[in-house]
Amino acid sequence: MLDSISLREKPNSTSDADASACIVRSQEKSLSTIVEIAHTLTGLCRLEAKLASVIERLGSLVQMRRGIVCLFEHDGGPEIIVEDGRSEDRDARCRVRLPQGAIDQIVASGQPLIVENVALHSAFISSEVDMLNAGGHTRVAFIGVPIDVDGKVVGTLSIDRIADNGTRAQLEDDRRLLTMIASLLGQTTKLHCSFVRDRGRLMDEEFRLQKQLSELKPHGRDRKKVQVEGMIGDSPALRALLDKIEVISKSNSTVLLRGESGTGKELVAKAIHERSARAKRPFIKLNCAALTETVLESELFGHEKGAFTGAFNARKGRFEIADKGTLFLDEIGEISGSFQAKLLRVLQEQEFERVGGNQTIKVDVRVIAATNKNLEEAVARNEFRADLYYRISVVPLLLPPLRERRTDIPLLAARFLKNFNNENGRTLVFDSSAIEVLMNCGFPGNVRELENCVQRTATLARGSSIVRDDFACCHGQCLSALLWKCGPAEMARQPSPTISLPARLGMPPTQAVTPVQPVSSELTPLGPPGRPVVGAAKVTDRERVIAAMERSGWVQAKAARLLGLTPRQIGYALRRHGIEIKRF
């Protein structure tokens, strides 16, 4: 008898084991899907794309025929509706597809709604029943759960499916899963709303500062020029930059310095700090590209004793050292994606924890970031976080390359040569032919390359003055020339009007003067191709001025900018060549 009972029970035991294994596999699949959904919601794509991906993955989690995520505006109307991967904004067609009665009940009660047969439930009107194809012998079940943020319902997540032989217990299981997903959606919606508000506030602040910059106008001859230590020149591009520095330094807004390598981003950052109310506080600088992510985190946030191997003592980070002052983050476009999230929190909340510590430290730091990378393209390629971009680019400031301020080259070269003479006990000066070479060089490395060029040439110069033949480029030995001869922009080497410069910088201009042709970065050649750049005839000057005036619609100020001159100089050139101004 016992044997017969054992034989009868054995199949049942096998069946129970199979059922248990099936349940475990189902639970593992559900957990894996929820993890995928959570990973999707933390991505960098648009909110609508995230919601569409959630609906797509929801089909592998629960039995469903159609899924809908609906988020509401402040006035209660639908703002975003995502249905089976299709996303639309608020319009009449969206509202027709929604089971409005059921949605309203969920929002009003703040509780989930489970309907085993929509055709028999009072929340569904006849048109909604027809929309769900629930007529006749087809039983359609509906499950809807609220999406809430801080106790307020901001949307709903709902599905419908063919009821078949499903039990109430199965609907309850699916309701629990949908509630978990709705909780994740609520957190994502909260972060999205916070990001939108933050971005709007930063854009408003940027607009206000840009408007203030645009309203900054000269006040006649008595207007005092802004002077910044280390920034040499008097070109229009440099004067405009210095004026912007003067305005920006009066606020505490985050600044993003944009420009090519060697344009003096660190000098500008220091100038903003020294002219601000934080001038007596620390100015701390850090090159983000020179450190690995782990070292960078320790450098910026500091670490506690024993936080990692070699951390024998607690150490303050740069943010903590720069409290009440300014922190300059160079090459910020090179930091990793994971570290961008950590940096975002510090910039937004002005608080952080040291590595290995749990005590929150609050600071008051003005951040000035710099990069020569195209951050807009990096954001589009998901290499740079959009929220961090908006956080650091409150006041973007573009630094002009040296080719756009060529009239500053003689002044810069003279200062670099003076520094060289002081350090080496020499008395070198520039010959006019040497200035001609410098004025016609592309300098893709900008001011840094100009300084290196002057030091190299002065070191190898054999006489008491630097002449044309002393330059490596005149002998085909300048390797940096490859950077701009084959570069995409080719550094705009076209001729411009002549500018008279003294033969020897630092000596009276009454000595030999040679006309020198600077290079314009904005003009294509105004004279015939192949015409000499240096020492051109006066008729060529006249043709260039006329071409520039025609190109600018005979507006003297625009023509002056094209030729790299001041309006006063262009007026003098018109009178000297007897050019009659056309009136329109």
From TrEMBL:
Taxonomy, superkingdom: Bacteria
Biased composition (Low complexity): 510-519
Keyword Transcription part of the UniProt annotation: yes
Pfam families listed in its UniProt record: AAA_lid_14 (PF25601), GAF (PF01590), HTH_8 (PF02954), Sigma54_activat (PF00158)
Occurrences of domain Sigma-54 factor interaction (ranges): 231-459
CDD domains, per the entry: AAA
Record-linked PROSITE patterns: SIGMA54_INTERACT_1 (PS00675), SIGMA54_INTERACT_2 (PS00676), SIGMA54_INTERACT_3 (PS00688), SIGMA54_INTERACT_4 (PS50045)
Region of interest (Disordered), ranges: 510-534
Keywords linked to the UniProt accession: Activator, ATP-binding, DNA-binding, Nitrogen fixation, Nucleotide-binding, Transcription, Transcription regulation, Two-component regulatory system
Oligomer status and interactors: Interacts with sigma-54.
Protein name: Nif-specific regulatory protein
Annotated source species: Bradyrhizobium canariense
Phylogenetic lineage: Bacteria, Pseudomonadati, Pseudomonadota, Alphaproteobacteria, Hyphomicrobiales
